[in-house]
Amino acid sequence: MTTRNNLKSLFNGEVLRNVFSDRPRTNLLKRQEEMAISWLVQRIPAFITSNMLTGIGFFGNMIVCGSFILASFFNRNFLLLGLLGFAVSWFGDSLDGRLAYYRNKPRKKYGFTLDITIDWISIILIGLGYIVYAEGTWKLLGYGFVVLYGWEIIIALIRFSITGRYSIDSGKVGPTEVRIIIGLIMIAEVLFPGSLNYSAFVVVIALFFVNILDTRQLLRVADNIDKKEAREKT
Asked: What is the pLDDT of residues 47-88, one digit of tens each?
């Protein structure tokens, strides 16, 4: 009973409210992710800073990129190294800002700028890794992934600009779900060589339609804001 009460206090109390106060989430694994982050931020050693965690997350994405390159030149099984990379990426990327809020040392504008920059460079690295691994015209899918994920970042920035609400999720899919999906695709490529190209094609098409839907929704929101401001002036 005591353990249950402690868990309830941890995941429903002040820690949870403070750590996630600035960023509403809608992703499928929201609850599980928040529970894990709430547990972890309380156990991060004091000498580890948010910037260090950002660096750790970036290093994880470098591992993912490296796994594609190693698989291309040596053995396909090196793709499994990308799973470790995604785990490291999640740890750093998910905890850097949350740790700052837990320690009551948030730097909203600095953190926002750093996160967006690192996310964009990380996507370029992962896309580059795929381009090295893929053959022939399949390489274009790596370029498409970078462009479309960059479009999603732009949508998030525009949404924040016109509504003041910053969200890293697109409906039920957030960065964590994307990491899991790509990780499963890499496992499938090890088991079924050649499947990665077709999986990447599906991912790129899905990203395209998701971005179209998000853009249309954002345009409606922007249009409603413009109409409301016009009515207020008359």
From this structure: 999 899 999 999 999 999 999 999 999 999 999 999 999 999
Its domain, for residue 30, covers 2-233
Domain count, the chain: 1
The confidence band for 9, taking pLDDT boundaries of 50, 70 and 90, is: very low
Residue that the structure tokens 């353990």 belong to? 3
Residue 44: give its domain's CATH number: 1.20.120.1760
pTM, 2 dp? 0.84
